[in-house]
């Protein structure tokens, strides 16, 4: 993951275009196509019944995940729940899975930009849904479901860019780590707030963070010794 920080709002999409241009070398494209298209981490042999967990998640509706595929081959994926700072309701988790599947099957796709509606990125999991499924079994299933989806997002044969304008908190920060690049508008923040709730990142963000920034920096970020600021994502 590479991070570009301090973009002003109006230059964000120009920044994304430049970034994508710089990534379009044959080598980069070949590497992308070498990625596995199916990124399932968990399946029924791990005790995950996808239909069952989808049904549970759909009991917590609100917001949407919108996908706009452009003729240019660049898609825009929008996390859309502004009334709750783009928190992920249960139905949005199911939506995201469907959108990722759509991108897996998009043969003309080159890149996807992931961003939040209305001037923020995402405040993570909807706390109302989290409270309602706060038993270990359901919590584990939700986490397995989201790990599957974010791993599939990470393994898409497309260049992915998280465009962070505002806050990416909790699960929102975890989503950022599943993208190849991060572009941050000035004043934006990526923060793993899980520790305040006595949680570990359940959507696979901790292991992705370790791979991105190394174990010591990841520990500092997760423990709150430093905020997940852009300089850390710049490290190889
Ligand atoms: C494995 C996944 C783990 C997770 O993701 S757990 C969730 C981690 N995220 C959080 O703890 C973030 C909680 N939210 C906040 O800290 C603040 O709302 C935040 C994002 C800094 C924004 O602060 P403010 O600008 O002051 O706005 P606010 O607090 O008045 O929020 C506006 C409305 O949005 C709601 N909201 C924000 N984040 C939410 C969330 N994650 N789940 C459910 N509702 C959420 C908030 O309750 C408020 O609603 P209302 O207007 O009071 O009805």
UniProtKB/TrEMBL annotation:
It is an enzyme of class 4 (lyase). CDD domains: crotonase-like (cd06558). Its EC number is 4.1.1.94. GO terms for cellular component: cytosol. Keywords: Cytoplasm, Lyase. One of its GO terms (biological process) is fatty acid beta-oxidation. One of its GO terms (molecular function) is methyl/ethyl malonyl-CoA decarboxylase activity. It catalyses: (S)-methylmalonyl-CoA + H(+) = propanoyl-CoA + CO2; (2S)-ethylmalonyl-CoA + H(+) = butanoyl-CoA + CO2; (2R)-ethylmalonyl-CoA + H(+) = butanoyl-CoA + CO2. It is found in: Cytoplasm, Cytosol. Decarboxylates ethylmalonyl-CoA, a potentially toxic metabolite, to form butyryl-CoA, suggesting it might be involved in metabolite proofreading. Acts preferentially on (S)-ethylmalonyl-CoA but also has some activity on the (R)-isomer. Also has methylmalonyl-CoA decarboxylase activity at lower level. Belongs to the enoyl-CoA hydratase/isomerase family. PANTHER family: ENOYL-COA HYDRATASE-RELATED (PTHR11941), ETHYLMALONYL-COA DECARBOXYLASE (PTHR11941:SF27). This is Ethylmalonyl-CoA decarboxylase. It comes from Knipowitschia caucasica.
């Amino acid at each position: 993951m590479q991070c570009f920080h301090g973009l002003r709002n109006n230059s964000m999409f120009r920044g994304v275009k430049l970034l994508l241009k710089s990534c379009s070398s044959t080598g980069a494209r070949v590497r992308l196509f070498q990625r596995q298209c199916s990124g399932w981490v968990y399946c029924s042999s791990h005790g995950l019944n996808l239909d069952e967990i989808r049904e549970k998640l759909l009991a917590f509706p609100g917001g949407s995940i919108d996908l706009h595929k452009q003729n240019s081959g660049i898609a825009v994926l929008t996390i859309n729940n502004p009334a709750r700072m783009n928190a992920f309701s249960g139905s949005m988790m199911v939506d995201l899975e469907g959108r990722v599947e759509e991108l897996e099957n998009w043969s003309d796709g080159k890149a996807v930009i992931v961003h939040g509606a209305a001037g923020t990125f995402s405040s993570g999991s909807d706390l109302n849904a989290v409270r309602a499924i706060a038993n270990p079994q359901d919590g584990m299933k939700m986490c397995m479901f989201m790990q599957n989806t974010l791993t599939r997002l990470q393994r898409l044969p497309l260049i992915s860019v998280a465009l962070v304008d505002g806050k990416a908190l909790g699960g929102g920060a975890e989503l950022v780590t599943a993208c190849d690049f991060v572009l941050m508008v000035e004043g934006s923040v990526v923060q793993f707030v899980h520790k305040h709730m006595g949680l570990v990142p359940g959507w696979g963000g901790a292991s992705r963070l370790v791979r991105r920034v190394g174990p010591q920096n990841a520990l500092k970020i997760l423990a709150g010794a430093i905020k997940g600021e852009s300089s850390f994502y710049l490290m190889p």
